[in-house]
Amino acid sequence: MVQGGQHLTDREAALLTEYELIRSEVKRMAGLIAEINREELDALAQSMRAVEQKLALVYTVFRSSIYAHLSQQDAAGDAMSVCAEPFQTNCPPFD
């Protein structure tokens, strides 16, 4: 086989043929990926946006319930501390 004025052995020609097959497959895969990106990426992004909005709502509800729970614990703890400790003031004691 003669290419560019050089003689190629059978092994070199077979190697170049395999490289050409690989190149064509990579080019075909790139085309398929571009097609998938054009057609399916927008739908996927929209569905992910819906999931993101739902997750934000669940997070907000969860966070508010945790805040309410901690507020109730603080209120219960304050009520308990008032009953457990004697009243204190900065005034000097009566003599």
Automatic annotation (TrEMBL):
Keywords, comma-separated and alphabetical: Cell cycle, Cell division, Centromere, Chromosome, Chromosome partition, Cytoplasm, Cytoskeleton, Kinetochore, Microtubule, Mitosis, Nucleus
Pfam families per UniProt: DASH_Dad3
InterPro entries: DASH_Dad3
Gene Ontology molecular functions: microtubule plus-end binding
Keyword Cytoplasm attached: yes
Highest taxon of source: Eukaryota
Keyword Ligase annotated: no
GO biological process, one term: cell division
Stated family: Belongs to the DASH complex DAD3 family.
Designated name of the protein: DASH complex subunit DAD3
